[in-house]
């Protein structure tokens, strides 16, 4: 049975019944989560492990200590209430690919420090070329389409919103 979309906050929760998915697509989405708790790369990898999978591609996004030439000391992610629903919609697009066996995305919200994991994206396929290509496209689309924004704090005390327009 596939994992359900979970969240630490009720306003970020959406069920697969809200986003109508074909059973063969729903079964491939193992985890779609936006929440405040630290992310676990190994747990996500295990969630997308498949007997027919010869390749798992993972992207792990880490809070870095710089951006645009400025020193970053911390950041805070915020999500629109529709973010979870959009995440499932994006995942379902890639789950419809017959060569994808399983996939998952987790994204942190709240306050994070430099070095913490902000997002994990994973894709399982029989072959590495598909796993790498889909993982790369998936994380790019998540960053563009899912309404999650970050407010970076710089060492000079200033801050800047990224992704909010």
Brief account:
The chain has 165 residues and is of the alpha+beta class. Helix content is 25%, strand content 38%.
What does this structure look like?
Helices cover 25% and strands 38% of the residues. With 165 residues, the chain is an alpha+beta fold. It has one domain: Aldehyde Oxidoreductase, domain 3, CATH 3.90.1170.40. Strands 1-2-6-8-3 form a five-stranded mixed β-sheet, sandwiched between helices. Strands 4, 5, 7, 9 and 10 form a five-stranded antiparallel β-sheet that branches. Helix 3 runs antiparallel to helix 4. It starts with 5 loop residues before the first strand and ends with a strand. 35% of the residues are buried.
């Amino acid at each position: 049975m596939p994992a359900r979309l979970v969240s630490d906050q009720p306003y970020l929760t959406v069920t697969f019944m809200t986003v109508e998915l074909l059973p063969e697509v729903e079964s491939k989405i193992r985890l779609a989560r936006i929440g405040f708790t630290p992310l676990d790369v190994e747990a996500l990898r295990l969630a997308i492990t498949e007997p027919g999978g010869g390749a798992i591609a993972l992207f792990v996004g880490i809070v870095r200590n710089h951006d645009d030439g400025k020193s970053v000391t911390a950041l805070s992610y915020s999500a629109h209430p529709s973010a979870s629903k959009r995440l499932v919609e994006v995942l379902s697009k890639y789950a419809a690919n017959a060569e994808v066996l399983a996939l998952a995305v987790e994204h942190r919200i709240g306050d994070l420090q430099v070095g913490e994991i902000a997002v994990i994206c994973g894709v399982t396929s029989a072959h590495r070329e598909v796993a790498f290509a889909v993982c790369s496209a998936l994380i790019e689309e998540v960053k563009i389409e899912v309404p999650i924004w970050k407010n970076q704090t710089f060492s000079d005390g200033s801050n800047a919103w990224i992704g909010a327009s």
